[in-house]
Amino acid sequence: MKILVVNCGSSSVKYALFEMEKEKKIAWGLIECIGLPEAFYRRQTVKSDEKKESVKIANHTEAVELMIEELLDEKSGSILNIKEIAVVGHRVVHGGDKFFETVLVNDKVKEDLKNSFSIAPLHNPAHYAGIIAIEKMLPSIPSVLVFDTAFYHTMPDYAYVYALPYEFYEKDHIRKYGFHGTSHNYVSQKAAKMLKKSLNEVNLITAHLGNGSSITAIEKGNVIDTSMGFTPLEGVIMGTRCGSIDPAIIAYLLDKYPTYKDSSVLNDMLNKKSGLAGISGLSGDMRTIVQAVNDGNRKAMLAFEMFIYSIKRYIGAYYGILNGIDALIFTAGIGENSAFIREAVCKNFCALGIEIDKEKNYEHCTYERFISTKNSRVKVMIIPTNEELMIAREAKKRLTSK
Ligand code: ADP
Question: Hey, what's the torsion of the CAs at 243, 245, 250, 252, to 10 degrees?
Fold first, then answer.
């Protein structure tokens, strides 16, 4: 069975084609700068090296058309007929309060998704455009939606309701939703396997640390809490996002600087000009920050320390809430690649039974592994995330349980 996974952004289409018997990715690609004078197409298959070219792509439909042409290409293609694709799995960032599980696309689902635009204005309209484009180009192939928020359906209300007047929750659906769910779901399943236990036997804290970062507390397979909230802005400090701040700061800024009365300017500042970038004045990219820390840059040092501190705070809190954990898992760009950051996060956590082995932590490899010492009560693990595969698995599950 072949499954096509599609992730549509406002100006991009990313895809991966999986052969599900061995869960092998056989073709993948990225079309960027859709709608701009020059778009770019990068793609690769198991049979051919990466190809890059500049293309003219006006909209998502044209991008999908190009992707399908490439998948069917006589020389480097991966399928002979589009009917080989059993199902298309779409990544959708926000399921709002309507979607708490993977769904098959139908008219009602599309309508509900459209109604969710106001809650996720940056992402859901682009996903919708992708769904319509796929439907147009592959009318006979079912599509399913896999939501980043769905993994959090087990969160208890005391964790997801904000202490605002209750009508904001009831009428406006303002609550914690949580994000990166597909990634936390994938690494938690993998972690349980590595621990040779079933998910409902273990307590885990999963730390997805990338440009966006989130920490999730999972008790015997059920999410209890997660650091991101109503939007992906809440929680730990991120590359360019502020993470949790005192909400009174917003009212103060609105009074003091009229420019912030325009919510797009305010959102831009909080989402794109804050975090590591805002503090350091250098960049939101952690590699640049680490380099500047090594060069003795004071503001980079502060940004770095704030980042580590905010992560430790969540780990400490979730450790307490879960009444102990079996494993702490690092994933995503920073979590997988930076031994320096893993070391800083785990430093002085031996009271919690978290001890990492320096050599294992600094060992350079890209596969999943344990990095805790033999005596560490809590296992510390690095698990490369694989959201595309998780979406393919979810799509397969949904299709076969139709
Ligand atoms: P996204 O959230 O956009 O998917 P990624 O998960 O790819 O992002 O993570 C990107 C982040 O990972 C960037 O801040 C990048 O600097 C950081 N990163 C990647 N490799 C390293 C490394 N070796 N050391 C420190 N940070 C790294």
Answer: -150
Index of the ligand 1 atom closest to the CA of residue 212: 2
Pocket lining: 182 vs ligand 1, CB cutoff 6 Å: no
Which residues, 6 or more positions from 250, have their beta carbon under 8 angstroms from its beta carbon? 266
Cβ contact 239:276 at 8 Å: yes
For 70-82, give one letter per residue: b (16+ CB within 10 A) or e: bbeeeeebbbeee
- Nearest residue to 215 via CA among 289, 287, 353, 309: 309
Which residues touch 68 (CB under 8 Å, ≥6 apart)?
Answer: 82, 137, 138
Compute the distance between CA of residue 191 and CA of residue 394 in angstroms, rounded to an integer: 18
CA of 11 to the centre of ligand 1 (A): 21
Q: Considering the entire predicted model, what is its pTM?
A: 0.95
Q: Helices 298-321 and 286-294 meet at what angle, rounded to 10?
A: 120
All structural domains of the chain, each given as residue ranges with its CATH number in brackets, are 2-147 (3.30.420.40), 196-387 (3.30.420.40)
- 197 in helix, strand or coil? coil
- 121 pLDDT exceeds 90? no
Q: Is 15 helix (H, G, I), strand (E, B) or coil?
A: strand
Which two tokens mark 401?
């349980």
Q: Which two tokens stand for residue 82?
A: 């589009």
Encode pLDDT of 48-81 as tens digits: 899 999 999 999 999 999 999 999 998 888 999 9
Q: Catalytic annotation on 97? A: no
The reply to whether ligand 1 has any atom less than 6 angstroms from the CB of 337 is yes
- The CA–CA distances, whole Å, from 224 to 125, 164, 274, 322 equal 29, 20, 28, 8
Tokens of 367: 């596969």
12 CB near ligand 1 (under 6 Å): no
Catalytic residue among 148, 172, 246, 326: 148
